């Protein structure tokens, strides 16, 4: 059984030295440092957050999405046919994103995240995965001035994301999270989503379909038919029947969102172990990963660290592994 993370890690730390990025962004806005100097700070913070995840004992880390302003921003900035528009609330959170505005045919060179992944590989000792935004999430949150239908928009986004996954594969990524909360928020589009994920999977990289914020109950069994290596299920944000239905995933990895990433209340290792033990009734250890429900960026960094420690200790305890101090 492995532990992992989902999405972004808190960029700003608890003490003055770990607030370097905030100061650098202010200095950049004032014209006091250039793009190269700001990029150096991003690299420093990326290295630091990877180190914190590794220090907690997480088996599979990401780059913390330190350079991402929001889950859609890297792609909205780099794809042809897309511009960044007004600030909008990101689902029911007290966070915001720049709404993508689709002005023409969407195309991608596929290199949006390749440099960042290459750097993260040089900084990480643990196994490293990459992440992209999900096709339904990007398409449903965007303002469309070009495509005539939601279907066309989703598939165009899927093709652009497939190019990004191809670029990540070239950079050395063997696993990519596809963060797609809209998929469970819009269950009527399940067949369209399956077609979109077929296009992503055609790039030959293992994918984890990551759901959060909403219970996967309406489409849980359908997710088992997607061409992905694993599915992340949030069992903490809302009431769910998922624990009784996880045996739907006969060959895929189940990534169990067992630590609430939007609540500062700290779970105990015993509490996490309880969730894990429930999942182990239907999923064997070798196909069960344990993770936060979503991005830890919703929390102060000291709370995020503590939650990762509880997650790792709880998972090891439930698996009968040695719990390290």
Q: Can you describe what's shown?
A:
The longest helix is centred in the first third of the chain and has 21 residues, at 35-55. It is built from eleven helices and twelve strands. The radius of gyration is 19 Å and the shape is globular. The strands form three sheets. The chain has a seven-stranded parallel β-sheet with strand order 1-12-11-10-9-8-6. A three-stranded mixed β-sheet has the order 3-4-7. A two-stranded parallel sheet has the order 2-5. It has one domain (2-318): Alpha-Beta Barrel (TIM Barrel), CATH 3.20.20.210. The chain is α/β, with parallel strands linked by helices. The mean pLDDT is 96. Helix 9 links the parallel strand 9 (206-210) and strand 10.
Q: Brief description of this entry?
A:
This protein is of the alpha/beta class and 325 residues long. The chain contains 11 helices and 12 strands.
Keywords summarizing the entry:
single chain; 325 residues; alpha/beta; TIM Barrel; 7-stranded parallel sheet; 3-stranded mixed sheet
């Amino acid at each position: 059984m492995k532990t992992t993370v989902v999405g972004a890690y808190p960029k700003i730390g608890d003490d003055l030295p770990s607030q370097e990025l905030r100061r650098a962004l202010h200095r950049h806005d004032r014209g006091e440092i250039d793009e190269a100097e700001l990029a150096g700070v991003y690299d420093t913070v990326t290295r630091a957050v990877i180190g914190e995840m590794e220090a907690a004992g997480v088996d599979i880390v990401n780059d913390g999405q330190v350079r991402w302003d929001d889950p859609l921003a890297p792609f909205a900035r780099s794809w042809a046919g897309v511009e960044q528009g007004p600030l909008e609330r990101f689902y029911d959170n007290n966070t915001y994103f720049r709404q993508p505005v689709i002005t023409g045919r969407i195309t991608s060179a596929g290199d949006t995240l390749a440099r960042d992944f290459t750097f993260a590989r040089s900084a990480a000792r643990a196994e490293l995965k990459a992440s992209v935004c999900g096709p339904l999430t990007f398409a449903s949150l965007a303002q469309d001035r070009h495509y005539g239908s939601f279907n066309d928009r989703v598939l165009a986004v899927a093709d652009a994301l497939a190019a990004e996954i191809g670029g990540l594969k070239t950079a050395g990524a063997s696993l990519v999270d596809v963060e797609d909360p809209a998929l469970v928020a819009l269950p009527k589009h399940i067949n369209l989503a399956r077609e979109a994920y077929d296009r992503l999977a055609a790039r030959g990289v293992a994918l984890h379909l990551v759901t959060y914020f909403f219970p996967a109950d309406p489409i849980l069994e359908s997710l088992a038919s997607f061409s992905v290596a694993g599915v992340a299920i949030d069992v903490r944000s809302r009431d769910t029947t998922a624990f009784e239905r996880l045996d739907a995933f006969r060959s895929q990895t189940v990534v169990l969102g067992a630590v609430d990433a939007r609540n500062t209340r700290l779970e105990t290792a015993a509490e996490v172990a309880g969730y894990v033990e429930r999942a182990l009734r239907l999923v064997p250890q070798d196909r069960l990963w344990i993770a936060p429900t979503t991005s830890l960026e919703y929390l102060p960094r000291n709370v995020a660290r503590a939650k990762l420690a509880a997650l790792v200790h709880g998972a090891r305890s439930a698996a009968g592994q040695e719990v390290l101090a």
